[in-house]
Please model this.
Amino acid sequence: MTEIQYRLPQQRRVGEFPGPNSRALAERRADVVASGAASGVPVYAADADGGVIVDVDGNSFIDLGSGIAVTSVGASHPAVASAVAEQAARFTHTCFMVTPYEGYVELAEELARVTPGDHEKRSVLFNSGAEAVENAVKIARHATGRKAIVVFDHAYHGRTNLTMALTAKAMPYKTGFGPFAPEVYRVPMSYPYREEAEIKGEDAAQRAITMIDKQIGADQVAAILIEPIQGEGGFIVPAEGFLPALADWAKEKGIAFIADEVQSGFCRTGAWFASEHEGLVPDIVTMAKGIAGGLPISAVTGRAELLDAVHPGGLGGTYGGNPIACAAALAAIGVMREADLSSRAQQIEGIVLPRLRAVDEALGEQSVIGDIRGRGAMLAFELVQPGTARTTKEPNPQAAKAIAAACLEAGVVILTSGTYGNVIRLLPPLVISDGLLAVALDVLESAVQAQV
Model:
């Protein structure tokens, strides 16, 4: 990675927590913001740069969440900020469906270059990951003439009505919001740590394929939709061979294979896309989060024959591919390429995983760490009740909450996840310094040790 020049001091500094200004904002918020829009951190951001977030009281937190894998190039990278300002000074909106502009076309060209495969591709731009996923489903159904969509246990695909149907976890995402869109079918995921017995990836894929054949019928399936590494489900990395076997079968049956790379894309896993780790070439890729340094934009990129099957006017939206967001995305992708952030993600993996394994080993048989997994800078460890890591693997969501709270009080922002609420996920900005990352890991290590 090329040397990064930071605007803010890259340090951890925590005084009163939460401070008076954050408490005052919380009071104002309670009067006007819907309670359903909850926040995991009780402080309010005033500035952010590199690997730190500074709150309205001057506290400086080490950021191991990146706004859920969004600010991979940092939350205020000068290249992104400059591109945004320059575009905003020209025009903020015309609607691509009315008066198109070069930025949209240029970003589609970039996406054709960086997504897996050398086939002819087309792209369409939207605003959020859920919107991208929903439109990928629309495209697959229109192109194949079929209706059924296959998704997996532990999946997360969004919060719209259709994407809630695609998402596995009920609370907080689905509870009370039904009925959901039909023709969505769920099959078992490859979850190596929680398999009843060790199973090869190809065999886990055959388990899912058998269920599809018996319960749906391959000729009824428009698409298989899967996260190559599951996000909210707990950073589950399927057993090697699982994804290629599914993709090969889908191709044989005329089923579109959609890789949801919303969280895992754009150098996060040590490659441009997580699909690349097993040589996977999806028919359609959905993207958002890390694409634009924090600006809201998403994309669907896929085989030309699939996307071009949709009639003119069938895809789009008022704000989709907003010119400012396109400028930000082009700048962010430029930073990723110039700074070789895929390699940086691999370096982060090489720093974090040995530290986590050492903590687990030091705790011995009473360790609360059941599994350590992930790729690049998309890493996690699953927490279990003490002494159950190799037996019942009983989930320990209380420990996850306690660790996250302890880290926050000590000045480190981390995120939880998992179907059972028992996973700590680590998503540092790819531009974080080694020194700052080491300080954060010291804090995390102490918080884990306190749970035994």
